[in-house]
């Protein structure tokens, strides 16, 4: 493999510190893909990210960009997949087999993002994107493993932000459902702890992405 050019090193050095997302012209980014230092994510908006080899180049010789705070979770715009948190006030996406296909595709895309952006290529450990989009990432892990979100006319899980740093709150309609959520999140690489509300004693779970 040819060593990266000075221009390529500058692009690599300017990658987002947490996610490895790259900025540049299409020709520059395509050149990094050909050099196996970057990849183009298969799902919209088809952003470019450093591969493990790209991360090594940055660690070995490039100067990292100044850290930026992770983006706050936000509702996806119309037409873009959004995991169901169980707190929606309006329908999210299609129903039935179409929804199942969307969820499966989104989960497969996230696993691939883990492989390509975790420096060791791990698929089992959450990646920087998940730590920057905690509610959506936890909700996708739950929906992809068959847990049912709360919705009109039925109970289910509800995922919401937590005051605790890098964690979400997960509630469910029954203890059995809550245990199912815990099992699903732990299989997806999250760590969990169960707590009781100060008033009423209702049980809930704090979940955060594992780093190791």
TrEMBL record:
Bias (Pro residues) ranges: 66-76
Region annotation (Disordered) ranges: 1-26, 54-81
Protein name per Swiss-Prot or TrEMBL: Uncharacterized protein
Organism (species): Streptomyces formicae
